[in-house]
Amino acid sequence: MAEPILISSASTIFSSSIPHLSPSHHRLLRHETQPCNTSRKPFSTLTCQASPTTTPTSNTPSKKLKNRYELENLTTWLLKQEQAGHIDAELTIVLSSISLACKQIASLLQRSSIINLTGAQGTMNIQGEDQKKLDVISNELFCNCLRSSGRTGIIASEEEDVPVAVEETNSGNYIVVFDPIDGSANIDIALTTGSIFGIYAPDEQCLVDYDNDTLDEAKEKCVVSVCQPGSNLLAAGYCLYSSSVVFTISIGNGVHGFTLDPAYGEFVLTHEDIKIPKSGRIYSFNEGNFDLWDTKLQNYLNHLRKPGGPAGKPYSGRYIGCLVGEIHRLLLYGGIYGNPQNENAKNGNLRLLYECAPMSYLVEQAGGKAIDGVQRILDIQPEKIHQRTPIYIGSPDEIDKLVSYLV
């Protein structure tokens, strides 16, 4: 067995591990550390000057570096907003219940093929659209979470014929409108889907039995209370189900995005105070309907396809088939999305109350614009629960360019 090597000092470590150094270097490493301004060779050219990029000045405030483990989840963020007076405790509970529904839907979507939740349910909703299995289940999840919160008075959903009054309400009467699964045609092929929601101010207690087909005066009053313009929204948001699950929300003070961390089961703040770019080089229209559109709109799209701009390239065409996915990309990259009226759909295809209004609220909070071709989406007064509207939404410069073609 080899003899152990005794090391008497740190200098021995350096001198034995770096044998190619000269004796003068060994002395320096042992004990002869020289001042920075020494004139001894070979270090006579060294200076003792800090890097300009790291030199603090009295006018430059020191910025605290964020710890990689210093995460802020949705619950903490909502409590901070409550403490700041932006929302009340009742709305905090409602938003938390919606985030719980989104987590449950995300879990089901990830396992849909395994647990046989793909395909059609065999029923149709009030708009005459075939319902997917997850359309029905997701609607139940949303309704159950909102009921159990005890702070919701009325629920209006894409999958419900009429607004539903919540009997379990304790003290809050918030009106919540939502589309539980947006882009449900993408479920079976594992493409992007999402959920959309909007929250309106509390109204008078409205506990109504909707078992009968006819609407009496009390029921009509409840329906009218739901039909509010988007400008009345207190909060709105969406949850994107894709490679990541992203919960994006606005309570009237900007747009913030939270990504679901599967390790903790929590939505973590990842996109703070999102600002949509003033312009973008992406457009999203279902161009299969091109021949059914107005000539002015066709001219606009022909313009986008022509090479132009600083790079001499046309716009990039993207179409996901899911409004949540389209808006999420718009918020981060800019551009324009359009679902216009056509010869077969005079009012467009998207619902005003629980799709267009909440998304328009979000985009405007991020600095964008949303119109129906004539007026601002948030100014439209809904007359029916499932009323449809054309929509053009996106970066402000792109919407202004569109308007110049439509006038």
Automatic annotation (TrEMBL):
Residues 276-405 form the Fructose-1-6-bisphosphatase class 1 C-terminal domain. The keyword Lipid metabolism does not apply. GO terms for biological process: fructose 1,6-bisphosphate metabolic process; fructose 6-phosphate metabolic process; fructose metabolic process; gluconeogenesis; reductive pentose-phosphate cycle; sucrose biosynthetic process. It comes from the Eukaryota. It catalyses: beta-D-fructose 1,6-bisphosphate + H2O = beta-D-fructose 6-phosphate + phosphate. Its EC number is 3.1.3.11. One of its GO terms (cellular component) is chloroplast. It is an enzyme of class 3 (hydrolase). Residues 51-62 have a biased composition (Low complexity). Keywords: Calvin cycle, Carbohydrate metabolism, Chloroplast, Disulfide bond, Hydrolase, Magnesium, Metal-binding, Plastid, Transit peptide. One of its GO terms (molecular function) is fructose 1,6-bisphosphate 1-phosphatase activity. The keyword Disulfide bond applies. Residues 34-63 are annotated as: Disordered. Residues 34-50 have a biased composition (Polar residues). Its cofactor is Mg(2+). It is found in: Plastid, Chloroplast. Residues 80-272 form the Fructose-1-6-bisphosphatase class I N-terminal domain. It holds the Pfam family FBPase_C. InterPro entries: FBPase_C_dom, FBPase_class-1, FBPase_N, FBPtase. Homotetramer. Belongs to the FBPase class 1 family. This is fructose-bisphosphatase.
